[in-house]
Amino acid sequence: MFFRKIDLRIKIVFLLFSFFLLCILGKVFYIQVFQYSKLSEFANDLWSRNLEIEADRGKILDRNGVVLADNLTTSSLVFIPSQIKEKERVCSEISKVLGVSYDELWKHITKKTSIERVHPEGRRLSNEVADKIRSFQFEGVYLLKEAKRYYPYQDFLSHTLGYVGIDNQGLSGIELQYDSYLKGENGSIKYYSDAHGTRLNRSEVYVPPTSGMNVQLTIDFKIQQSLEREMDNIYDMFHPDMALGIVANPKTGELLGISSYPDFNPNEYQKYSTEVLSRNLPIWASYEPGSTFKIVTMATAVNEKVVDIFHDHFYDSGKVNVDGSILKCWKSKGHGDQTYLQVLQNSCNPGFVKLGELLGKERLFSYIRQFGFGEKTGVDLSGEGTGILFPFERIGNVELATSAFGQGPSVTPIQQVMAVSATVNGGYLYQPYIVKSISDNTNTVYYENHKMLKRRVISSDTSAIMRMALESVVAKGGGKSAYIEGYRIGGKTGTAQKQENGVYLTNNYIMSFMSVVPSNDPEAVFYLAIDNPKNTAMLSSYTTTPIARRVLLDIIDSLGISKQEEAMEKDLEWNDKIYYDVPNVMGKSLDEAKKILVNFEVVVEGETGVVVSQSPPPGERIEDRSKVRLLLE
Fold it and tell me: Region 613-619: what's the mean pLDDT?
């Protein structure tokens, strides 16, 4: 009986043991067959270590493919402390190469981390320094590829492009605005080690980085280059508080050039103050526009038909009394009797006071808002200002009068450019933009910008009248210094008083010039402003218009604008050069040719016969007393 009980117990134990063994084998089978991938992944995560490889940022290019922001390949120093066996020697040698203290580097080497990036001394290393560190062949010391943002033209378009930080992140301008497209995805080198950092005998895995997308701008390199050159000239000549320029395509809203002073070199942005870095003046600055604003008032008056600018007259005595406030013309004795076209040509303040009175505050300020003042233009750049308009209920007769000639409202340069674009393009107010497209390295376009119409402000007839009126200002009015022989240039000068603590300053002005080329079919609107120029007469003929003329010549060249015979003739001044069309003297005798070419110096090749060749050819317009060569046969 006793032995039977023992046998039973042994059988039970054996059965239990067999059962547990089967469970264990079943579990092992389940793990090996069904959970292998999952557990293997867990193991890899525990053993794997990543050495990050930084991706190149996408390039920023002008409209024709000129690279404005690129990348340089550099190296970054990384330690894996657990793998470094000769810590003292590593610390001694590398601290000398980096030019840092032994103690500073020792902190990095002895940290209880799996991977230690040496920051900031070991970032963006030069090739020379990287090669020296590489030559030591220290265990646990790695040099990883790192991209460094590089701006090949230095301060070129600096406020608009912006700059990037030490971690290759956009911090301002296009670099910040489009950082999600530009930054790309980092890659890595994956290796395996145990908990002590000892490398396991497993192959490394290389995950390549993915470069960011390229951003193509609407900027024209040649036009921007011209603006940058003239900003330097303005600084050298006038030492202003600030200066700025914008060139836009009035038919689309594309920005072809945008520049301001003071600027900075984004390759060395750390050397500049926050004030310089953060102010993109053409879209941020807000000030009273002065006489360039008269374009808006005149366009409103023409569109509302309150005057016929060709036939209606205004008598300017030099000043006008508005509710006890004496508002003066720049010409103290006045311009006398003149048409309203001449009021614009002469930039006559009392004439514009009258236009404001005829329009009334409801109509004038309605148009001012319709032209886009008092609101952001929506340009695809950060930091845009809105300007300031009088609250409607606070607009009295004096505010109405001064606003009509550009004193009172505070506006931004980009607002003025878009308003004048609407004035000359047929009446259409567009939203300005600077990013043309975004594409990857295979040139696959992911985003493309197009012109965006906000509203129509004036009629096509009004726009045509204003184009002609602005051309007359350059040919016969205050913008003569910007006149270019054979080309149709429209424009308007401006002299804006500056305020400080509610008081207008003396001898401290913002000089400006708004121009259109060609005036009959505009392809570019160009605005130039100089704040408080020093050591010069406060006249546009000395400051803005001669500089604008040089930029306009570059715009003409870059856009391929042709000469036009219908260009308005300039009213000559004492220092103006005279130009004549070369007459056709082919087939004439020498005596006959000389009588016809009375305004030129004739150079003859051959002794007798008739003219068989002439240079320059007939119809070319050249300066008075220039040489005309004739070949006789």
Answer: 89
CA atoms within 13 A on the CB side of 583: 16
Q: What are phi and psi of 285, to 5 degrees?
A: -60, 140
Query: How many residues in the chain?
Result: 633
State the Cα–Cα distance between residues 82 and 167, nearest whole angstrom.
26
State the CB neighbour count (10 A cutoff) for residue 120: 8
Let me know if 291 is a catalytic residue: yes
- Here the tokens at position 52 are 């990050």
Q: DSSP code of 444?
A: -
> Which one-letter amino acid corresponds to residue 63?
R
Is the CB of residue 344 less than 8 Å from the CB of residue 298? yes
d(CA 307, CA 300): 10
Burial class (CB in 10 A: 0-12, 13-18, 19+), 264: middle
* Active-site annotation holder among 291, 347, 519, 540: 291
Q: How far apart, in Å, do the first and last CA atoms of the chain sit? A: 152
The whole-angstrom separation of Cα 116 and Cα 563 is 65
Select from 181, 182, 188 the least CA-distant residue to 149: 182
Task: Dihedral sign for Cα 580, 520, 420, 319, please.
Answer: positive
Predicted pLDDT of residue 571 = 66
Neighbours of 109 (CB within 10 A): 20
Tell whether the model's pLDDT for residue 204 goes beyond 60: no
Domains along the chain with CATH numbers: 50-156+186-215 (3.90.1310.10), 221-559 (3.40.710.10), 579-632 (3.30.10.20)
C-alpha to C-alpha distance for 597 and 585, rounded to whole angstroms = 8
Residue pLDDT, tens place only, 360-400: 999 999 999 999 999 999 999 988 999 999 898 899 999 99
Query: Is the Cβ–Cβ distance between 136 and 143 less than 8 Å?
Result: no
